[in-house]
Amino acid sequence: MTTQRTVLITGGNRGIGRAIAEEFLAAGHRVAVTSRSGDGGPEGALTVAADVNDAGSIDAAFKTVEEKYGPVEVVVANAGITKDGLLLRMSEDDFTSVVDTNLTGAFRIIKRASKGMLRAKFGRVVLISSVVGLFGSPGQINYAASKAGLVGIARSLTRELGSRGITANVVAPGFIETEMTAVLPEETQQEYLSQIPAGRFGQVDEIAKTVRWLASEDAGYISGAVIPVDGGLGMGH
């Protein structure tokens, strides 16, 4: 019997985040998700408003979850944005806003979650990165930097808190069928597919199942790892 955990997923109202929330719900866990508006999460989850750029709103969201479900034992930092553009055309704001949401936002979430995890001597931190963070991508210097930075967070966190029953791991999705890939032109989609050894895009539930496994007792001795779920696209990176 799997121990029921209290799970918080940022950006859990759509795409990969929503699929992760649904996977934990199906496994019988107590699930909360954040969205900027405070609604739109999957049925059965507690949806709370939070802006990962605002530590005060994060604290308020955690308090709401703690009052209903108890301390957060599993945190999935998934909220992220893109502002793509080639280096010479990328404004400083385009760079800093993406890094602040995707990287500093994850730091804020983990810092708040770690208090309860340290008291419980148990915690699972899962950071949603991207194949782009290690593989690189033209026009995504800001996004790639933010996603690569999550690896440094997970590994440093492992060294800081690993002896306290807390693990920190990174999941690096490749091209996954979501609203974001659906809007790509057919020609672009075919170009991407030609680079993926598996010959297909991934499904959101393939990411969700990997995240759920990393949060389980079965993965208790795995920490500081980067798990690619990309059909072989970024192997070796």
TrEMBL record:
Single GO MF annotation: oxidoreductase activity
UniProt keyword list: Oxidoreductase
Domain of life: Bacteria
Coiled-coil residues: none
Domain Ketoreductase: 5-179
SUPFAM superfamilies registered for this protein in UniProt: NAD(P)-binding Rossmann-fold domains
Keyword Oxidoreductase: yes
NCBIfam families associated with the record: PRK12826.1-2 (NF009466)
Family, as annotated: Belongs to the short-chain dehydrogenases/reductases (SDR) family.
Protein name: Beta-ketoacyl-ACP reductase
The organism's taxonomic lineage, starting at the top: Bacteria, Bacillati, Actinomycetota, Actinomycetes, Micrococcales
